[in-house]
């Protein structure tokens, strides 16, 4: 009897051991994939690799606006049209170095200039997530067609050699684990530097001015160094965490444009510990003061209402034309932001005073919010401000009207030293002023042609001169 019991126990153990091992292996695989999903969220992959309105995540097609033209994000699902044929080594090289399996270079709209810091463990987990959890979508990539010389992808090899880096993240032992996590997120996965660091004439980041603020098309990515005037040095940690999680920090700022996308697709899903780590790191960055700023942007303004003064003054004509910034504000803005600019009681419609967007020395975000509106969906709330440029469901405004509203807001609620001209609005409507390299691009082909002609003429002249000298001798 005892022998039978022992035999039964041994047989049971033999039968269940492979099952237990398989279960452990499955749990390990599931944990790896879950970690990869966290890396994908922190890296904001979906925001660029999913076209607006698309029901298939990571299938590409989103046109990323760049000064050189539209760069279309590719399909990164594990299909034949996507990255299904990538080995892990090829995947890692694309992520960190911006080089495809066929050797072609990616444009740095894919932020490999930050992702090079990604650890081996995170690359491995990210690969597992995309290959084993993301649904494959057989969708062809939209071809990126930039003009010469930007269409020469091999030129990115030279650009990378001058400005790129392949260094992986190195822990700073003199700092806390929380600071190191924040550093890794800000400069690596979340690639905050790609927007918030100014760029040189070759469109590479100025590494001596990290996170000091930079134009971003029609918008402006503000200074997020620890400077108390120009940066976030005067923000409390909990205000930074709230801003990253919900897209707003009452009395400080609200996310719009590209930052709204980052909050909606990425930052709101990070654990609070990561958001706190980002805040801790940012509060300890080197402070950089923006030239011309003497007070924090969120300290400007006070409630002001001119409704009583403008009621019955120069009544609207038959076309309902409003002739001043005050009247334009009353007719287009006051119903949400209140006649005195204080916003709604719950600040879903934010106050226009004590607001970074209206207090900055750069008015880009104020003007762009009027032009393009604000859309942001988080677990906390939905935000929708209509665009006042076509197509829109409200009456579109002209460049001069938007300039008039902006100047009324700036004079009463924001930085009164800043003025907006109709020409400024026209540039922002077109996507912002072009950096040198992009502005020079249309003249490069004619310039090269002229250069070749000049060289040919010089060679002909040199040959004729030698021929004459030989003839004289």
Could you walk me through the main structural features you see in this protein, from its secondary elements to its overall organization?
The longest helix has 41 residues, at 2-42. This protein has a two-stranded antiparallel sheet with strand order 1-2. Strands 3-4 form a two-stranded antiparallel sheet. The protein is mostly helical and 473 residues long. The protein is globular, with a radius of gyration of 28 Å. The protein folds into three domains: 30-282, no CATH class; 298-429, Cytochrome Bc1 Complex, Chain D, domain 2; 444-473. The protein is 46% helix and 5% strand. The protein is built from 19 helices and eight strands.
Q: How would you summarize what this structure contains?
A:
The protein is mainly alpha-helical and about 475 residues long. It is built from 19 helices and eight strands.
Spell out the blueprint of helices and strands.
Elements: H1 2-42, H2 45-49, E1 63-64, E2 71-72, H3 88-97, H4 112-115, H5 120-132, H6 155-163, H7 177-189, H8 193-196, E3 214-216, E4 219-221, H9 237-246, E5 248-249, E6 253-254, H10 257-265, H11 272-282, H12 307-310, H13 325-332, H14 334-337, H15 356-359, H16 364-372, E7 374-377, E8 382-385, H17 399-412, H18 422-429, H19 436-472
Antiparallel strand pairs: 1-2, 3-4, 5-6, 7-8
Helix pairs in contact: 1-5, 7-11, 9-11, 13-17, 17-18
Transmembrane segments: 443-464
Signal peptide: 1-22
GO molecular function, one term: oxidoreductase activity, acting on CH-OH group of donors
């Amino acid at each position: 009897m005892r022998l039978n019991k022992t035999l039964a126990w041994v047989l049971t153990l033999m039968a269940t051991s492979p099952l237990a091992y398989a279960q452990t292996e499955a749990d390990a695989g599931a944990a790896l994939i879950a970690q990869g999903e966290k890396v994908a969220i922190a890296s904001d992959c979906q925001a660029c690799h999913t076209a607006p309105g698309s029901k298939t995540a990571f299938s590409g097609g989103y046109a990323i606006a760049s000064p050189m033209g539209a760069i279309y994000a590719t399909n990164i699902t594990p299909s034949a049209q996507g990255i299904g044929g990538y080995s892990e080594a090829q995947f890692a090289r694309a992520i960190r170095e911006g080089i495809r399996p066929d050797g072609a270079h990616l444009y740095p709209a894919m932020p490999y200039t930050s992702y090079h810091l990604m650890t081996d463990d995170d690359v491995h987990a990210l690969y597992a997530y995309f290959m084993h959890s993301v649904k494959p979508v057989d969708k062809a990539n939209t071809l990126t067609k930039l003009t010469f010389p930007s269409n020469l992808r091999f030129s990115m090899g030279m650009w990378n050699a001058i400005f790129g880096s392949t260094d992986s993240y190195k822990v700073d032992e003199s700092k806390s684990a929380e600071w190191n996590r924040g550093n890794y997120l800000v400069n690596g996965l979340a690639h905050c530097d790609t927007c918030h660091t100014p760029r040189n004439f070759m469109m590479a980041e100025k590494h001596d001015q990290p996170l000091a603020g930079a134009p971003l098309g029609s918008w402006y990515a503000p200074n997020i160094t620890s400077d108390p005037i120009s940066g976030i040095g005067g923000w409390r940690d909990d205000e930074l965490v709230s801003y990253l999680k919900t897209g707003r920090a009452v009395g400080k700022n609200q996310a719009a444009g590209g930052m709204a996308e980052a909050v909606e697709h990425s930052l709101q899903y990070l654990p609070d510990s990561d958001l706190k780590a980002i805040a801790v790191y940012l509060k300890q960055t080197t402070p950089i003061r923006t030239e011309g700023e003497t007070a924090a942007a969120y300290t400007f303004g006070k409630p002001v209402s001119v409704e009583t003064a403008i009621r019955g003054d120069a009544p609207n004509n038959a076309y309902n034309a409003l002739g001043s910034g005050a009247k334009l504000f009353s007719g287009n803005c006051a119903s949400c932001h209140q006649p005195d600019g204080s916003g709604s009681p719950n600040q879903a419609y934010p106050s226009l005073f004590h607001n970074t967007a209206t207090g900055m020395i750069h008015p880009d975000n104020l003007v762009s919010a009027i032009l393009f509106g604000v859309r942001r969906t988080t677990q906390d709330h939905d935000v929708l401000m209509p665009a006042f440029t076509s197509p829109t469901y409200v009456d579109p405004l002209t460049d001069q009207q938007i300039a008039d509203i902006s100047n009324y807001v700036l004079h009463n609620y924001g930085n009164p030293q800043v003025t907006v001209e109709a020409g400024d609005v026209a540039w922002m409507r077109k996507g912002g002023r072009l950096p040198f390299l992009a502005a020079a691009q249309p003249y490069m082909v004619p310039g090269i042609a002229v250069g070749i002609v000049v060289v040919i003429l010089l060679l002909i002249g040199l040959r004729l001169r030698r021929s004459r000298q030989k003839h004289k001798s």
